[in-house]
Write a structure and sequence with these properties.
Helix content: 40-55%
Shape: elongated
Distance between the termini: 101 Å
Structural class: alpha+beta
Number of strands: 13
């Protein structure tokens, strides 16, 4: 008769065992992967395929979104190590900050190329893991090869292609795959696994959703290695949760969510299921509520059947995709004013669709290759054949608008210390604000111009007012027109209106105002530059305002 202590694990596993079938452990090495030489070939072939979807990522590289507006400027001005410990939008984002740190090694003109190469590398690595023997529990190699192809060719993913800013999503897929993979035979690879999982954990909130997945796998398998993996996921998860709880309120959008059952069906059926099959072009067709409801039902049945019948690795991956999707819909960052779900409904190709689409198309692949049901095999094959439409139409993504980055990089290289250069980047309307390093300046000077407004039409006399933030006393503010000094003024004291907006930093916002004569300036477009001189010797631009002089 078993002792009480021997019976407890079976009783504790009873609930989980009803939901999750643990399947075979990783003790069977007979299922094959590919060798080291072939892995290298796969890496370069996959990298070439990624570049073929948007060749300008390699042949005309430019900064994308936060890569140029936040990560690189902060690493350049504050130092990469100091920037590494700054959270953004409520959590730490280590991957793009590390990519920016590496890009600092090269001149500015090569920085976007370096960062894109890092983004492409992260994007390829899940494929290398999938076709290795470590993922043998997922199924035979041909099934995993189909999964890899679907991942590389996934439609409706324009935003995620070859950019470190969105590389955290590919890194999260890699981390989840490592959590579910069979343990590496050699400890050096196991250490690398833990480092990748930690890097992913400190590069986004995905580790919070990955933690229950890792815990369930350890609970069912009871391997010592799995416990180390749980620790590697739990450490960043706890830190990211603290960051979210302490800073999300001040940094994330407060726009209404606007969630409704109708929008939920439109998002699931339109962006996830139809988006992954027909691509972005298929989403431009207005579809009836009945078609969307039927699509949502059929797609969910396919995913649900895979979850119920597939092996443990499949179940946990689908659960992770669902958790990420739910978290994305609960607190997205797509609008500051319009209800979020309304914006999501019309936002094709964005990061929030990545994991639910991966879960769906991989469920189709499982049904087509591994299901014992003829109905679901037919459904899987039909779905994959239809998906060829989306793959073909979405394979080539539009190139980023050519803002002639190399010209701005040359301008920045020739600028004197303290000069600000505003560089237009993609998406349209985004700007990279970079200030040439100046002696004594250890961080980016912050300031603003209240008047005149950007693009304002001004006459021969124009009032210029604003504020500047500094921990050091400000000796003077210089106002220039097209880099020619127009006036030097001393800040006139506090700005109570600005202090009230930033109560955590009283007495740091110094107001200034001046009146400049433009009677001798030619009519037409010009730039007004503001530069501050701190008591510690730091002198740098803090604002550039485009105006038009009219007579």
């Amino acid at each position: 008769m078993p002792a009480l202590g021997e019976a407890q694990p079976e009783q504790q596993n009873a609930v989980l065992s009803r939901l999750f079938s643990s399947g075979e452990n990783c003790g069977n090495p007979e299922s094959t992967g590919i060798g080291a030489a072939l892995q290298l070939l796969v890496f370069f072939v996959c990298a070439a395929l990624i570049v073929s979807r948007r060749p300008d990522a390699l042949f005309n590289p430019q900064f994308f979104a936060e890569d140029g507006s936040i990560w690189y400027p902060e690493a350049y001005m504050s130092g990469w190590l100091a920037a590494l410990f700054h959270s953004r939008n409520g959590y730490f984002q280590t991957l793009p900050r590390l990519a920016s740190a590496i890009a600092l090694i090269t001149p500015l003109r090569f920085a976007p190329l370096v960062m894109n190469l890092i983004g492409i590398t992260i994007q390829v690595l899940p494929v290398n893991l999938l076709v290795s023997a470590r993922c043998r529990n997922w199924g035979p190699l041909f099934a995993r090869a189909i999964m890899a192809i679907l991942y590389l060719a996934l439609p409706n993913t324009r935003e995620l292609d070859a950019a470190p800013e969105e590389g955290q999503w590919h890194l999260a897929l890699l981390a989840c795959s490592l959590v579910l993979a069979c343990p590496a035979a050699k400890w050096r690879w196991r250490v690398l696994d833990l480092l990748v999982i930690l890097l992913s954990g400190f590069s986004g909130p995905f580790c919070v959703m990955l933690l229950p997945i890792a815990v369930i796998l350890w609970w069912l398998r009871r391997e010592k290695w799995r416990l180390l993996v749980v620790s590697a996921v739990a450490t960043p998860a706890s830190i990211q949760l603290i960051a979210l709880l302490t800073s999300a309120e001040a940094t994330r959008s407060h726009a209404l969510l606007g969630a409704t059952p109708k929008l939920a069906i439109q998002l699931l059926a339109g962006q996830v299921y139809l988006g992954s099959i027909l691509g972005e072009s298929g989403l431009q067709v207005n579809r009836s509520a009945l078609v969307l409801a039927a699509t949502a039902l059929l797609g969910t049945v396919v995913v649900g059947y895979c979850f119920l019948k597939a092996r443990l690795e499949w179940k946990l991956m689908l659960a992770f995709c669902a958790l990420v999707f739910a978290a994305s819909l609960r607190n997205p960052m797509v609008s500051m004013t319009v209800p979020q779900w309304q914006v999501l409904r019309d936002s094709s190709g964005i990061r929030y669709w990545f994991f639910p689409m991966i879960g769906f198309v991989w469920a189709l692949a499982w049904c087509a290759t591994l299901s014992s049901s003829s109905f679901f095999r037919f459904t899987g094959v039909a779905g994959l054949l239809m998906m060829c439409t989306g793959i073909v139409t979405d394979w080539r993504y539009p190139a980023y608008t050519d803002h002639h980055f190399s010209t701005y990089a040359a301008q920045f290289a020739a600028a004197r210390p303290g000069t600000m250069v505003n560089i237009p980047i993609f998406p349209e309307g985004w700007t990279m604000r970079l200030v040439k390093r100046s002696p004594g300046c250890h961080s980016l000077l912050l300031g603003s111009v209240d008047q005149p407004k950007p693009g304002a039409q001004v006459s021969n006399s124009v009032a210029v007012t604003g504020w500047v933030l500094s921990d050091e006393p400000i000796r003077r503010v210089s106002i220039s027109i097209d880099r020619r000094l127009a006036q030097s003024i001393t800040p006139d004291g506090r700005r109570p209106d600005v202090d009230s907006l930033y109560p955590q930093s009283p007495d740091r916002y110094k107001g200034w105002q001046g009146l400049i004569d433009m009677s001798q300036v030619a009519a037409g477009p010009h730039e007004i530059e503001m530069r501050a001189l701190e008591a510690n010797g730091c002198e740098a631009d803090f604002a550039i305002i485009p105006i038009e002089h009219v007579r």
